[in-house]
Description:
single chain; alpha/beta; Rossmann fold; four-stranded parallel beta sheet; 10 strands; about 45% helix
Amino acid sequence: MSDNPSSPILLFDSGVGGLTVYDxxxxxxxxxxxxxxxxxxGLPYGTKxxxxxxxxxxxxxxxxxxxxxxxxxxxxxxTASTIALGMVRDVLEIPVVGTVPAIKPAAALTQTGTIxxxxxxxxxxxxxxxxxxxxxxxxxxxxxxxxxxxVQAAEAKLRGRPVxxxxxxDVHDRLAAMAGPxxxxxxxLACTHFPLLADELAAAFGNEVRQVDGADGIARxxxxxxxxQGFAATGPDRFVVTGPLAGAEGLEEALAARGFGVAEAF
Length: 266
Ligand code: DGL
Protein backbone atom coordinates (compact mmCIF):
# COMPACT_ATOMS: atom_id res chain seq x y z
CA MET A 1 0.00 0.00 0.00
CA SER A 2 1.40 3.38 -1.03
CA ASP A 3 1.94 5.92 1.75
CA ASN A 4 3.02 8.59 -0.73
CA PRO A 5 -0.10 10.46 -1.87
CA SER A 6 1.62 11.76 -5.01
CA SER A 7 2.66 8.28 -6.16
CA PRO A 8 0.98 7.82 -9.55
CA ILE A 9 -1.04 5.09 -11.17
CA LEU A 10 0.84 3.95 -14.27
CA LEU A 11 -1.39 3.26 -17.28
CA PHE A 12 0.43 1.54 -20.11
CA ASP A 13 -0.56 0.83 -23.71
CA SER A 14 1.12 0.58 -27.09
CA GLY A 15 -0.61 3.81 -28.12
CA VAL A 16 -3.65 5.93 -27.36
CA GLY A 17 -6.04 3.00 -26.82
CA GLY A 18 -5.49 2.98 -23.08
CA LEU A 19 -7.01 6.45 -22.94
CA THR A 20 -10.36 4.63 -22.98
CA VAL A 21 -9.31 3.11 -19.64
CA TYR A 22 -8.01 6.50 -18.48
CA ASP A 23 -11.43 8.06 -19.20
CA UNK A 24 -13.17 5.35 -17.17
CA UNK A 25 -10.64 5.69 -14.35
CA UNK A 26 -11.16 9.43 -14.13
CA UNK A 27 -14.85 8.85 -13.38
CA UNK A 28 -14.16 6.65 -10.36
CA UNK A 29 -10.89 8.18 -9.10
CA UNK A 30 -10.91 11.83 -10.15
CA UNK A 31 -8.02 12.93 -7.93
CA UNK A 32 -5.54 10.10 -8.43
CA UNK A 33 -2.31 11.18 -10.16
CA UNK A 34 -1.78 9.22 -13.38
CA UNK A 35 1.16 8.74 -15.71
CA UNK A 36 0.01 7.45 -19.07
CA UNK A 37 2.72 5.72 -21.06
CA UNK A 38 2.25 5.03 -24.76
CA UNK A 39 4.83 2.76 -26.35
CA UNK A 40 4.60 4.49 -29.73
CA UNK A 41 8.04 3.14 -30.65
CA GLY A 42 6.59 -0.36 -30.33
CA LEU A 43 3.15 0.28 -31.86
CA PRO A 44 1.48 -1.85 -33.16
CA TYR A 45 1.78 -4.79 -30.80
CA GLY A 46 -0.88 -6.80 -32.58
CA THR A 47 1.36 -7.84 -35.46
CA LYS A 48 4.32 -8.82 -33.25
CA UNK A 49 5.20 -12.23 -31.89
CA UNK A 50 4.47 -13.33 -28.34
CA UNK A 51 8.21 -13.31 -27.52
CA UNK A 52 8.65 -9.76 -28.84
CA UNK A 53 5.65 -8.44 -26.93
CA UNK A 54 6.51 -10.18 -23.65
CA UNK A 55 10.12 -9.00 -23.64
CA UNK A 56 9.22 -5.45 -24.61
CA UNK A 57 6.35 -4.99 -22.17
CA UNK A 58 8.11 -6.55 -19.18
CA UNK A 59 11.30 -4.59 -19.88
CA UNK A 60 9.57 -1.25 -20.33
CA UNK A 61 7.29 -1.61 -17.35
CA UNK A 62 10.24 -2.58 -15.18
CA UNK A 63 12.12 0.58 -16.19
CA UNK A 64 9.06 2.79 -15.88
CA UNK A 65 8.21 1.48 -12.43
CA UNK A 66 11.77 2.10 -11.29
CA UNK A 67 11.69 5.65 -12.60
CA UNK A 68 8.24 6.73 -11.40
CA UNK A 69 7.59 4.52 -8.35
CA UNK A 70 3.90 4.05 -9.18
CA UNK A 71 1.53 2.62 -6.58
CA UNK A 72 -0.14 0.41 -9.20
CA UNK A 73 0.39 -0.39 -12.86
CA UNK A 74 -2.35 -1.15 -15.35
CA UNK A 75 -1.60 -2.76 -18.68
CA UNK A 76 -4.37 -0.97 -20.58
CA UNK A 77 -3.89 -3.15 -23.63
CA UNK A 78 -5.46 -6.54 -24.37
CA THR A 79 -2.59 -7.70 -26.54
CA ALA A 80 0.05 -6.99 -23.92
CA SER A 81 -2.08 -8.31 -21.07
CA THR A 82 -3.11 -11.60 -22.61
CA ILE A 83 0.57 -12.31 -23.36
CA ALA A 84 2.67 -10.62 -20.68
CA LEU A 85 0.55 -10.06 -17.58
CA GLY A 86 2.06 -12.97 -15.63
CA MET A 87 5.57 -11.94 -16.52
CA VAL A 88 4.99 -8.31 -15.55
CA ARG A 89 3.52 -9.42 -12.22
CA ASP A 90 6.71 -11.40 -11.61
CA VAL A 91 8.86 -8.32 -12.33
CA LEU A 92 6.97 -5.59 -10.44
CA GLU A 93 6.42 -5.41 -6.72
CA ILE A 94 3.18 -3.44 -6.97
CA PRO A 95 -0.32 -4.53 -7.95
CA VAL A 96 -0.66 -5.00 -11.71
CA VAL A 97 -4.10 -4.83 -13.30
CA GLY A 98 -4.57 -6.34 -16.73
CA THR A 99 -7.09 -5.98 -19.52
CA VAL A 100 -8.83 -9.04 -20.82
CA PRO A 101 -11.42 -9.33 -23.58
CA ALA A 102 -14.88 -8.74 -22.10
CA ILE A 103 -16.22 -12.16 -23.08
CA LYS A 104 -17.94 -12.78 -19.76
CA PRO A 105 -20.22 -9.70 -19.84
CA ALA A 106 -20.85 -10.19 -23.57
CA ALA A 107 -21.96 -13.78 -23.01
CA ALA A 108 -24.33 -12.60 -20.29
CA LEU A 109 -25.83 -9.96 -22.59
CA THR A 110 -26.30 -11.78 -25.87
CA GLN A 111 -29.82 -12.84 -26.78
CA THR A 112 -29.03 -14.41 -30.14
CA GLY A 113 -26.06 -16.34 -28.74
CA THR A 114 -23.78 -15.06 -31.50
CA ILE A 115 -21.00 -12.72 -30.39
CA UNK A 116 -18.40 -10.97 -32.51
CA UNK A 117 -14.96 -10.42 -30.98
CA UNK A 118 -12.73 -7.82 -32.61
CA UNK A 119 -9.12 -7.68 -31.47
CA UNK A 120 -5.58 -7.65 -32.73
CA UNK A 121 -4.07 -10.63 -34.54
CA UNK A 122 -1.97 -11.46 -31.49
CA UNK A 123 -4.89 -11.25 -29.07
CA UNK A 124 -7.34 -13.41 -30.95
CA UNK A 125 -4.91 -16.35 -31.16
CA UNK A 126 -4.18 -16.45 -27.41
CA UNK A 127 -4.96 -19.49 -25.28
CA UNK A 128 -6.07 -16.93 -22.70
CA UNK A 129 -8.99 -16.09 -25.01
CA UNK A 130 -9.74 -19.80 -25.59
CA UNK A 131 -9.95 -20.21 -21.82
CA UNK A 132 -12.29 -17.24 -21.39
CA UNK A 133 -14.48 -18.61 -24.16
CA UNK A 134 -14.61 -22.09 -22.61
CA UNK A 135 -15.29 -20.67 -19.16
CA UNK A 136 -17.88 -18.02 -19.94
CA UNK A 137 -19.25 -18.53 -23.45
CA UNK A 138 -19.84 -22.26 -23.64
CA UNK A 139 -22.88 -22.87 -25.82
CA UNK A 140 -22.51 -19.50 -27.59
CA UNK A 141 -20.87 -18.76 -30.92
CA UNK A 142 -17.85 -16.49 -30.47
CA UNK A 143 -16.59 -15.26 -33.83
CA UNK A 144 -13.12 -13.73 -33.72
CA UNK A 145 -11.67 -11.29 -36.23
CA UNK A 146 -8.39 -9.41 -36.27
CA UNK A 147 -8.64 -5.75 -37.18
CA UNK A 148 -5.17 -4.18 -37.26
CA UNK A 149 -6.52 -1.39 -39.48
CA UNK A 150 -8.74 -0.20 -36.64
CA VAL A 151 -5.74 0.38 -34.39
CA GLN A 152 -4.31 2.80 -36.95
CA ALA A 153 -7.77 4.32 -37.49
CA ALA A 154 -8.15 5.03 -33.77
CA GLU A 155 -4.67 6.54 -33.61
CA ALA A 156 -5.55 8.76 -36.58
CA LYS A 157 -8.94 9.77 -35.19
CA LEU A 158 -7.41 11.02 -31.94
CA ARG A 159 -5.03 13.12 -34.03
CA GLY A 160 -8.03 14.73 -35.74
CA ARG A 161 -7.76 12.76 -38.96
CA PRO A 162 -10.73 11.11 -40.69
CA VAL A 163 -11.50 7.40 -40.30
CA UNK A 164 -11.76 5.47 -43.55
CA UNK A 165 -15.27 3.90 -43.49
CA UNK A 166 -13.97 1.02 -45.66
CA UNK A 167 -11.91 -0.20 -42.68
CA UNK A 168 -15.01 -0.47 -40.51
CA UNK A 169 -17.08 -1.99 -43.33
CA ASP A 170 -14.41 -4.65 -43.81
CA VAL A 171 -14.68 -5.76 -40.17
CA HIS A 172 -18.46 -5.80 -40.43
CA ASP A 173 -18.44 -7.80 -43.64
CA ARG A 174 -15.97 -10.40 -42.39
CA LEU A 175 -17.99 -10.96 -39.23
CA ALA A 176 -21.28 -11.11 -41.14
CA ALA A 177 -19.80 -13.73 -43.49
CA MET A 178 -18.66 -15.81 -40.51
CA ALA A 179 -22.05 -15.49 -38.79
CA GLY A 180 -23.95 -16.67 -41.88
CA PRO A 181 -27.67 -16.83 -41.08
CA UNK A 182 -27.05 -16.11 -37.38
CA UNK A 183 -27.38 -12.59 -36.04
CA UNK A 184 -24.54 -11.00 -34.07
CA UNK A 185 -26.12 -8.87 -31.35
CA UNK A 186 -23.04 -8.25 -29.19
CA UNK A 187 -19.54 -7.11 -30.10
CA UNK A 188 -16.57 -7.54 -27.79
CA LEU A 189 -14.13 -4.70 -28.40
CA ALA A 190 -11.06 -6.70 -27.39
CA CYS A 191 -8.57 -3.93 -28.00
CA THR A 192 -8.50 -0.75 -25.95
CA HIS A 193 -8.24 1.32 -29.13
CA PHE A 194 -11.61 0.23 -30.45
CA PRO A 195 -14.02 2.05 -28.10
CA LEU A 196 -12.54 5.23 -29.64
CA LEU A 197 -14.36 4.13 -32.81
CA ALA A 198 -17.69 3.39 -31.09
CA ASP A 199 -19.64 5.81 -33.32
CA GLU A 200 -18.16 4.45 -36.53
CA LEU A 201 -18.80 0.85 -35.40
CA ALA A 202 -22.39 1.71 -34.46
CA ALA A 203 -22.91 3.23 -37.91
CA ALA A 204 -21.73 -0.01 -39.56
CA PHE A 205 -23.26 -2.60 -37.20
CA GLY A 206 -26.38 -0.70 -36.08
CA ASN A 207 -27.21 0.82 -32.71
CA GLU A 208 -28.95 -2.36 -31.64
CA VAL A 209 -25.67 -4.28 -31.63
CA ARG A 210 -24.16 -3.82 -28.17
CA GLN A 211 -20.51 -2.94 -27.91
CA VAL A 212 -18.84 -4.31 -24.80
CA ASP A 213 -15.39 -3.42 -23.54
CA GLY A 214 -13.52 -3.80 -20.28
CA ALA A 215 -12.72 -0.16 -19.42
CA ASP A 216 -15.30 0.39 -16.65
CA GLY A 217 -14.51 -2.96 -15.06
CA ILE A 218 -10.78 -2.21 -15.03
CA ALA A 219 -11.39 1.22 -13.51
CA ARG A 220 -13.52 -0.34 -10.76
CA UNK A 221 -10.84 -2.94 -10.10
CA UNK A 222 -8.16 -0.25 -9.75
CA UNK A 223 -10.37 1.80 -7.42
CA UNK A 224 -11.03 -1.29 -5.33
CA UNK A 225 -7.34 -2.12 -5.01
CA UNK A 226 -6.53 1.46 -3.97
CA UNK A 227 -9.40 1.86 -1.54
CA UNK A 228 -8.43 3.90 1.50
CA GLN A 229 -5.30 5.41 -0.09
CA GLY A 230 -4.73 9.16 -0.20
CA PHE A 231 -4.14 11.05 -3.45
CA ALA A 232 -2.40 14.37 -3.97
CA ALA A 233 -1.55 15.33 -7.53
CA THR A 234 1.41 17.68 -7.83
CA GLY A 235 0.49 18.85 -11.35
CA PRO A 236 -1.44 17.74 -14.41
CA ASP A 237 -1.33 14.08 -15.38
CA ARG A 238 1.64 13.12 -17.54
CA PHE A 239 1.48 11.62 -21.04
CA VAL A 240 4.75 9.98 -21.92
CA VAL A 241 5.73 8.33 -25.20
CA THR A 242 8.58 6.05 -26.23
CA GLY A 243 10.45 6.96 -29.40
CA PRO A 244 10.53 10.42 -30.94
CA LEU A 245 8.23 13.00 -29.40
CA ALA A 246 6.97 13.73 -32.92
CA GLY A 247 4.91 10.55 -32.55
CA ALA A 248 2.57 12.49 -30.28
CA GLU A 249 2.02 15.25 -32.82
CA GLY A 250 -1.66 15.94 -33.43
CA LEU A 251 -2.72 14.62 -30.03
CA GLU A 252 -2.59 18.05 -28.35
CA GLU A 253 -6.36 18.57 -28.35
CA ALA A 254 -7.19 15.06 -27.13
CA LEU A 255 -4.63 15.39 -24.34
CA ALA A 256 -5.69 18.89 -23.29
CA ALA A 257 -9.35 17.82 -23.21
CA ARG A 258 -8.39 15.14 -20.68
CA GLY A 259 -6.28 17.48 -18.57
CA PHE A 260 -2.84 16.13 -19.49
CA GLY A 261 0.22 18.32 -19.67
CA VAL A 262 2.21 18.42 -22.90
CA ALA A 263 3.53 15.08 -24.15
CA GLU A 264 6.94 14.02 -22.85
CA ALA A 265 9.52 11.55 -24.14
CA PHE A 266 10.44 8.52 -22.01
N1 DGL B 1 -4.42 -1.32 -27.62
C1 DGL B 1 -3.92 -2.64 -27.84
C2 DGL B 1 -4.91 -3.69 -27.36
O1 DGL B 1 -5.72 -3.43 -26.51
C3 DGL B 1 -3.33 -3.06 -29.16
C4 DGL B 1 -2.95 -2.15 -30.24
C5 DGL B 1 -1.69 -2.62 -30.98
O2 DGL B 1 -1.78 -3.45 -31.91
O3 DGL B 1 -0.64 -2.16 -30.56
O4 DGL B 1 -4.85 -4.82 -27.80
